[in-house]
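Run: sequence + adenosine monophosphate -> complex structure.
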Amino acid sequence: MFQLIIFGPPGVGKGTQAISIAEKLNLDHISTGEILRKAASEGTELGKRAKEIMDKGNLVPDDIMNGIVKETLESIKGEGFILDGYPRTLNQAVALTQIFNDLNFNDLKVINLRADDEEITQRLLKRGRSDDTRETILNRLKVYYESTSPVKKYYEDLGYNIDINGVGEVEEINSEILKCIN
Ligand code: AMP
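>> structure
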């Protein structure tokens, strides 16, 4: 069972790349943002709560996210999976290490996609999701630098670190990722 974490700031192209890589390598794509948006569209209690948080560009509490991911991974089958949008805090990264240990998952790669703030702001404004307003984007970037970017160091310290330029043609970035994980 292969594990891939696609990490990077909002709007860097994690989702696009994860979908394509998942298809090419026959992996499950686990996007915590998608899971929350689905819950929101279904109007569940979790969904309602999450939507309010997402529309402000804040993070859904760690215990909720860790629970969702634990449950998802406990029932996963197949050749492997890509995590897109998780872990987003140090607390989540530590929880994920524990989950991987418990489930004997030990074939992890971590890809960091990078792009500068101006590039990702422009991309997000073009995308136009309900959390892609200028105000929310600014807050998502702030939250990224404060809470999420330390996760990069967490994995670097554990020896995982594949850094890839996220600016350019989607297919070229895709080939670069495939080259690095093969
Ligand atoms: P994304 O689709 O990954 O951009 O996520 C959209 C929004 O969902 C984020 O801005 C957060 O509000 C929420 N979200 C997604 N994943 C997480 C996570 N791992 N921890 C906390 N909040 C999350």
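>> summary
Strands lie at 2-7, 28-31, 80-84, 108-114, 162-165. The first helix runs from residue 14 to 25.
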